[in-house]
TrEMBL record:
Annotated protein name in UniProt: VOC family protein
SUPFAM superfamilies: Glyoxalase/Bleomycin resistance protein/Dihydroxybiphenyl dioxygenase
Signal sequence segment: 1-22
Keywords: Signal
Pfam families from the UniProt entry: Glyoxalase
The organism of origin for this protein: Paraglaciecola mesophila
Domain Glyoxalase/fosfomycin resistance/dioxygenase per the UniProt entry, residue ranges: 37-176
Length: 188
């Protein structure tokens, strides 16, 4: 499969008005660092794909087995899947499964995110129709079903968002949200 260059962010652009915000930084404002993608270590990529590809709609752009020698002479085997959202500049998510040797599952589980837990935020434009598939994905735990939240703006206004929170099959915290207003700006 062909790999397309991308930057990180795993943000699905939700409204036409925010498409322009996802544009690359002007040349004169660029810094020397790009965040390419976020990669989640998972126990079973096929189970994870049922959430990220099938329910949320990310596009698989790379799916390969990676084999490399280990010091003991055995072969390390991993499967890497890369997925993308709306454009090739942002929105990449990697899923990495260690086939051999397997990695142990993290044992501690908390009822809310704690330091060391990433929270990935995805914006979808069709949360009302997509939600049923999300909550019915295998091994997904619903923490909060979609509900209306208003975030403050610096000018006293509000940013209305439908917010939901899940844990994916491997315990990663995922907000699946729908922006109902224009997104936050630096002045907010």
């Amino acid at each position: 499969m062909k790999i397309r260059s991308s930057l990180f962010a795993v943000m699905l652009c939700a409204l036409p008005c925010i498409q322009s915000i996802a544009a690359p930084v002007n040349d004169e404002d660029r810094i020397s660092v790009d965040i390419r993608r976020t990669t989640f270590l998972v126990n079973d990529i096929d189970t994870s794909l049922q959430l990220y590809r099938d329910a949320l709609g990310l596009n698989v752009i790379y799916d390969q087995m990676i084999n490399s020698p280990m010091e003991n002479g055995e072969i390390r085997k991993r499967r890497l899947v890369l997925m993308q959202a709306n454009d090739t500049f942002i929105g990449a998510l990697g899923l990495l499964q260690y086939i051999y040797p397997e990695k142990p599952q993290r044992q501690e589980k908390f009822d809310e995110p704690v330091p060391g837990d990433p929270i990935m935020v995805m914006n979808v434009s069709d949360l009302d129709t997509r939600w049923k598939s999300v909550e019915q994905s295998p091994k997904v735990a619903v923490i909060e079903a979609p509900h209306h939240v208003e975030y403050p703006r610096a000018d006293g206004g509000k940013i209305a968002v439908m917010v939901s929170m899940i844990r994916d099959p491997d315990g990663y915290w995922i907000e699946v949200n729908q922006l109902l207003d224009a997104p936050a700006k630096a002045s907010d």
